[in-house]
């Protein structure tokens, strides 16, 4: 496993992190299987784990808490997220800060996460949605400062709304935000335009989420894929999204190098960008852990392939189904 500097925090974080959404609320989630996968990931060098209160109303956080308690042999970083008070994903521009993140709510849900994870201090607490229009409001700023001063949170971050990578720039410049979590993958390359240069300038750590475009970039999703009704992906891969996503994945298949899977190529594309501190694929099964962590070996893609993949950029804007 290779490690990267985590922005101005100077943490040494595994460039393959662990996204824990799939361990709570997704079809087929199993705690025993999840914990085996987490232990294997630690054995393989993973030290950054991203969860959220919204992942099973604290269930995923509790799983992480059990892991942290049992793995005192390793330095592990725990990141969680405060859910929007109105429970709306993504945020909308007309939402007020009071509707989504009032100060007392920020503090209350940080306390909930501390209890769920079983720690006195969370390494990284993030806002699960954001609007840059809130940048100048003292209410959230004072809550962040209070939690840091009380030693309950080491660092604060923002998880940027899907396909809105620039909807946080003013907030990053307040100096109160240490990290930004953004969708970045072969299709979603827009963060490179403005967000990454600002993060490089300010020393803000970039967490690349959704490395496989919710599964499209694993090559396993086709035009005929159907998800169970209670699976979140059923509401995301509606026909107007599923069909073009599958078509774009099909166009990628011919450029996948021999001996490499599309998923491996997707991870290596992300890791080819030095602005990225870590990427957080979901890994519910041990075979996923083995495959994803193997991509962290310091061997990048060829310049020719990276150039080709740049041609697969897909600029999108938020829609009713782009949660």
Descriptive overview:
There is one protein chain. With 323 residues, this protein is of the alpha/beta class. The protein has a single domain (3-213, 259-310), classed as TIM Barrel (Alpha-Beta Barrel). Helices cover 35% and strands 14% of the residues. It has twelve helices and ten strands. The chain has helices spanning 31-43, 59-70, 97-100, 103-117, 138-149, 169-172, 195-202, 233-236, 239-252, 262-271, 286-293, 303-310; strands at residues 3-6, 11-14, 18-19, 48-50, 77-82, 122-127, 153-159, 179-183, 205-209, 276-279. An eight-stranded parallel beta sheet has the order 3-4-5-6-7-8-9-10, covered by helices on one side. Strands 1-2 form a two-stranded antiparallel ribbon. Helix 5 (138-149) links the parallel strand 6 (122-127) and strand 7. Helix 1 (31-43) runs parallel beside helix 11 and helix 4 (103-117) packs parallel to helix 5 (138-149). The longest helix is centred in the middle third of the chain and has 15 residues, at 103-117. The protein is globular and about 55 Å long. The relative contact order is 0.15. The mean pLDDT is 96.
């Amino acid at each position: 496993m290779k490690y990267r500097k985590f922005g101005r925090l100077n943490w040494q974080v595994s460039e393959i992190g662990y996204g824990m959404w799939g361990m709570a609320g997704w079809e087929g989630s199993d705690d025993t299987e999840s914990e085996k996968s987490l232990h294997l990931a630690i054995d393989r060098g993973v030290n950054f784990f991203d969860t959220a209160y919204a992942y099973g109303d604290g269930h995923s956080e509790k799983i992480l808490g059990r892991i942290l308690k049992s793995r005192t042999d390793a330095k592990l970083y725990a990141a969680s997220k405060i859910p929007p008070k109105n429970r709306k994903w993504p945020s909308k521009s007309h939402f007020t800060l009071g509707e989504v993140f009032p100060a007392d709510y920020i503090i209350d849900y940080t306390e909930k996460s501390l209890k769920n994870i079983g720690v006195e201090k969370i390494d990284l607490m993030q806002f699960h949605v954001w609007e840059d229009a809130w940048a100048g409001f003292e209410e959230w700023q004072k809550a962040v400062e209070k939690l840091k001063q009380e030693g309950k949170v080491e660092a604060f971050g923002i998880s940027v709304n899907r396909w809105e990578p620039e909807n946080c720039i003013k907030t990053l410049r307040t100096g109160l935000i240490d990290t930004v979590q953004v969708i970045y993958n072969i299709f979603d390359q827009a963060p490179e335009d403005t967000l990454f240069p600002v993060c490089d300038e300010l020393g803000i750590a970039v967490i690349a989420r959704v490395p496989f475009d919710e599964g499209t970039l694993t090559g396993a999703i086709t035009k005929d894929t159907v998800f169970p009704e209670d699976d979140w992906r059923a509401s995301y891969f509606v026909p107007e999204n599923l069909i073009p996503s599958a078509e774009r994945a099909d166009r990628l298949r011919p450029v996948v190098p021999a001996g490499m899977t599309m998923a491996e190529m997707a991870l290596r594309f992300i890791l080819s960008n030095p602005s990225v501190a870590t990427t957080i694929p979901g890994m519910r099964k041990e075979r996923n852990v083995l495959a994803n962590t193997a991509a962290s070996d310091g061997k990048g893609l060829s310049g020719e392939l990276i150039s080709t993949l740049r041609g697969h950029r897909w600029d999108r804007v938020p829609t009713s189904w782009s949660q």
